[in-house]
Amino acid sequence: MIRVLLADDQALIRAGFRMLLDSADDIDVVGEATDGAQAVAMALATRADVVLMDIRMPNVDGLEATRQIAATEDLAGVRVLILTTFEADDYVYQALRAGASGFLVKDTEPAELLQAVRVIARGESLLSPSITRRIIADIISRPSPMALNNPDRLAQLTERECEVLTLVGGGLSNDEIAGRLHLSPLTAKTHVSRILTKLHARDRAQLVITAYESGLITPGER
User: Fold this and answer.
1) What is the pLDDT of residue 89?
2) φ and ψ at 82, to 5 degrees?
3) Which residue in 192, 171, 208 sits closest to 92, CA to CA?
4) Neighbouring-strand partners of residue 32
C-alpha cells in the first residue's frame, strides 16, 4: 500500500485529491497538511511514502518543506511530488534541486495522477519534456552556475556510467537506454542505480540536473 500525504492550503483541492486517491486499492491517504511546516511534521508522524506538495502555501512554502524533507535522515525514503498550477512554474528548478522527485499540474487527468503517485513511490522521477526544457532554460539563464562545466563531479563514474548519465539527462527510460547502448534492461537499471549511489542523488530528477550542470550535456544539445 502506498501511503500518501496531501499538502495544500486549499481545502477543496485536498478533498478532491483525497477522493480520487482513496478510490485506488493500492493507495492510502494518511494525512492532510495546510502548510509546509505541517507537511514536514506529518511526513515524520505518518511515515508517508509520497507527499503531494503544493508550492505556494502560507508560512513555510512547499519549496522549503521539500528541502527540509530531503535533508532529514528519518525521511530518506519519502518522495515529494510537486503540484503546480502550470508547468512553467518559477520554482521548478529550485524544487528539483531541493529534492523533489517530479511535478504534476493540478488539472491533470485522474488516471495520470494515480500513475504519477505509483511512479514516484517506486523511486523513479516524473519529468515531462516541458519540465526538462524549463530546467535547461534556468541553467542557461544563470550567469555563473556553480557546477557548470565541472568535470571533477563525474570523476568517480566509469565511461559507461557517463554514457548512461547522458541518456538519463536526455529523458530516456531504462528500457530506452538499454536499447540505445545494446544492454539488457537489468544492466541499464544497475548502471543507473550505481550512478545514483556514487553521486548521492535521490532519484533520476537530480541526475538530469547533474548531467547539465556538470557540462556532460550542453544546453541546447540533443
Assistant:
1) 56
2) -80, 135
3) 208
4) 6
Compute the distance between CA of residue 220 and CA of residue 213 in angstroms, rounded to an integer. Answer: 13
Picking from 221, 213, 211, 167, the residue whose alpha carbon sits closest to that of residue 191 is 167
**Averaged pLDDT for residues 199-207:** 81
Q: Please, which pLDDT band fits residue 148 given cuts at 50, 70 and 90?
A: very low
| pLDDT at site 103 | 82
CATH number at 2-126: 3.40.50.2300
pTM equals 0.74
Question: What's the rounded Cα separation, in Å, for the pair 181 and 138?
Answer: 29
The architecture (CATH level 2) of 137-213 comes to Orthogonal Bundle (1.10)
Annotate 177-217 with DSSP letters as a single string: HHHHHT--HHHHHHHHHHHHHHHT-SSHHHHHHHHHHTTSS
- pLDDT surpasses 60 at 193: yes
Phi, psi of 102 (to 5 degrees): 175, 180
Q: What ranges do the domains of the chain cover?
A: 2-126, 137-213
Give the DSSP letter of residue 126: B
By CB atoms closer than 10 A (0-12, 13-18, 19+), residue 51 is buried
First to last CA, the chain: 39
Q: Cβ(17)–Cβ(52) under 8 Å?
A: yes
